[in-house]
Amino acid sequence: MHAKIQFDTVQRWMQNVIEHGGTDAEAWHSEAAQKEIPYEEAYLNVNPSETLSPVERIAIYRRMFVLRMCDAMGIDYPGIKHFFGEEKFDEIVMDYVRTYPSNSYTLNHLGRNFPQFISESNLRDKEFLGDLARLELALTNNMDASDSPVLIQQDIASVQPDEWNTATLVPIAALELLEFNYPAAEYLRSVIDEESTEEPIHPKRNAIVVYRKNFTTWFKQLTDEEYVLLYQLCNGATVVQALDILVAQFPDRQKEFEHHVFEWFSDWIQRGMFSKILISKEY
Length: 283
Prior knowledge:
Layout: H1 7-19, H2 24-28, H3 31-36, H4 39-45, H5 54-76, H6 78-84, H7 86-99, H8 114-120, H9 126-142, H10 153-157, E1 167-171, E2 175-180, H11 184-192, E3 206-213, E4 216-222, H12 224-234, H13 239-249, H14 254-270, E5 274-279
Antiparallel strand pairs: 1-5, 2-3, 3-4
Helix pairs in contact: 1-5, 5-7, 6-7, 8-9, 9-11, 12-13
């Protein structure tokens, strides 16, 4: 007769065995597993089937756990998976989870340390891959950002001319600005559109905005000028202050801005990037 074991003890034992990164035998004999249930006792309490031993039965769960982690990471990091191919990507994922084991009940947060892991690795093109991982993590995190009301053209039209001197634009919660040293967004766009990604990857400073509209996450490449203006607005500068900073950084482009700034603002409002306008009273 097998000794009676508390259910929560069995749960902890099985979790330790399933999550162990070594072989099946190493998992069963691991210190964490045997702290819950000694190997001999555990072996007697897992019934064999007609074709599988107790170790082989638990191995099914161990293999499925690995496959689910690789699938989850492939969903969050399709660009990096495409870069390496499925087999190499799965190897990298297993190295990653051994370095940064999950401590959450859900796989939704499994990849949150992946950019850090890549920066610490010896992977080829890791500088480019680090930018790509940051972009893909931002896209994943964007879906968890809270909802915000969205500014519309009528809100803009309701602001009096003299009120723009103190007006600030509040970005939606689901918006993030990112700077890169490599063309991560271009590469990911090619992957999404199933276009060729065989071109050599060279350094290229660039900036993008990640935002959510109608329950869908988007990313958009920004010009240097757009980035400067949008960055200032998203960090609390008034519209007038942001425009002054833009002109100060690009003094030879001032006349062009008279036309482009209107286009940029119209585009950002149409994309739903701002939540509201705050107007401070001047005394």
